Amino acid sequence: MTISAKNFRELRLEGMRRDFGGMNALKDISLTVRRGEFIALLGPSGCGKSTALNCLAGLLPLTGGSIWLDETRIDHLKPEERGFGMVFQNYALFPHMSLRKNIGFGLRMQKLPREVIDAKVEEALALVRLTKQADKLPGQISGGQQQRVAIARAIVVEPPLVLMDEPLSNLDAKLRLEMRAEIRRIHNMIGCSTIYVTHDQDEALSLADRIVVLRDGEMRQVGTPHELYARPAHADVAEFMGYRNILKAQAQSHDGARLRMRVGGAEIAGCAIEATPGRDVIAAMRPEDLTPSEHGPIAASVISAEYRGRDFYGLARTPEGLDLWFRSDIAVRPGEALRLGAPAERVLVYAGGAA
Amino acid sequence: MQNMVLTPPVPERVRLSQRLARRGFDVTTLLLLPALLFVMVLFVYPAIYGLWLSLHPMNGGGWLANYTAFFSDPYTYDTIFTTLKLAIPVTLVNLLISVPIALRVRHMRYQRMLTTILIIPVTLGTVLTAQGMLNYLGPLGWFNRVLMLLGIIHDPVRLVHDFTGVFLSQIVGGFPFCFMLVLSYVTGIDPSLESAAAMLGAGPFARFRHIILPLLGAGLAITFCLAFVQAFAVFPSAVLLGAPSGPTRVIAIAAFHAAYEEYDYSMGSAVAIIMGAVQIIVVMLVMKASSLLYRGPVAGGKG
């Protein structure tokens, strides 16, 4: 007997909407999730990602739109009728039940025969490597172990879809990396679809097959981790994906997608990601791509520098008062004057306006 | 491995305050004093004095004369059972009503307003409640008149000056107390536990049976004890709404009768001591039974 997800082809969200007393927490979310896919819902806090997850779980009713599992409409079903697995941010383990009972709870609710329950629980315990602790109460094990119990409890019922609500946010940095790999391994093994809510772009990039970036309840971009990392579709997505330097600039000349623009007193080159009708544009650069060089176009003086082992990570200010985050291979000291530059293909240009 | 020079431990002088602090006594311990004084003066001393009084019978006849007198006359010892027959059902009914209401109120938006409304009976006091119930439920009260007008009954139902009257007033007076305690225990349970159970396929009843009830058990036992002790000491409503010489001759009435009608303070104290003993026995039984229940934290994890 092995734990493997129930068979289905796809989960479809069609115009999913949720209002909270006049405020649109979710606007028109449409998405198709294929079986076995790992989707990350990424966004800053308050962007609606947890609302979206709770709507999928059935813990919050929709205000509009529908949810389909293949040809079955499921948005009117109660959470207990949907058969999805969910891993909560605080794990929500039943404190009065042993790990074994916690994991077996869903199977007992299905009224399966005892031998079947025992066998599956045993297998799930082995899957999350907690066989030895099986008879302890949740309060007697560490946070990382509790997290693994929560995952085992969600997947042992073989749900077609597993929902995870920032499951790693309560763990320390080292454990977080370990659990990340663990989550992906379990996902691959049982073949379910996973929807994973997070505000951590590293987590989303490393885990997901596709990332959905949410902001103010709207889907801003859907794409593979590489697409999102290299070519964020909007300036706000870029900012969220680690483009820490978001600068107002004036376009000077176009050459196809390439354009030259003025940023403060400097003229730099970049490539346009979206149509830039006006002169006002926004240039987005990762600190990793902005480095000191002899002929760099931007003159600035170092405000602060952080040593990071392999390199330095610093903040510099131009004479016009623009703050820039940059990376340097050699030591820089506060007060030092330097020239910064970035390769044109790493400077993304968006239409100006709100930035 | 190098040789280490072992020096004999220097006998250190430790100040008394440090030695006390190691055992958990420090200046903050002094903050206990006012409360301790209060308890000694207002509880421990009267209780010991009452016990002493009860062992010195007014009419002589040895230390235990009052107790033997109480337990040899069915008119007096029956008051224990009369009171238990009233207090236990009242407490159970109050608990049984409180739990579902608390479960519902927990998710309500106007929780505070509803709580205030439910608390009003406590603030009114027993006598005013009794007065109101006498008028409302009496033979010529609204309740009976409406029923007679509708032709449901032909003669007034006897609701006051009987067991029913005391029972109802105890429910009205005891419910808010029970409810507030139960509500605080219910709201202490992490709501994500119920969501988690729902996600695992548990319907409302299964969630209550497997999650809420086990986590609530210890709290319900404590609520039962406190509410029971309150109900067991019933006096005003038993006199005003009941039949103080018949079916609602509760143990407090027996104590009052001995102390203030026969002026036998010694016997009165003995009845009070017996009353306390019965309460302690019941509370101990309930606590013993509840020690079999889960008593740990009611949250679902670290969060």
TrEMBL record, chain A:
ABC transporter domain ranges (all copies): 11-241
This protein is called ABC transporter ATP-binding protein
Q: Could you tell me which species this protein originates from?
A: Acidocella aquatica
Pfam families of this UniProt entry?
ABC_tran (PF00005)
Classification lineage: Bacteria, Pseudomonadati, Pseudomonadota, Alphaproteobacteria, Acetobacterales
Please name the GO terms that the record assigns under molecular function.
ATP binding
Entry keywords, A to Z: ATP-binding, Nucleotide-binding, Transport
The superkingdom of the source organism is Bacteria
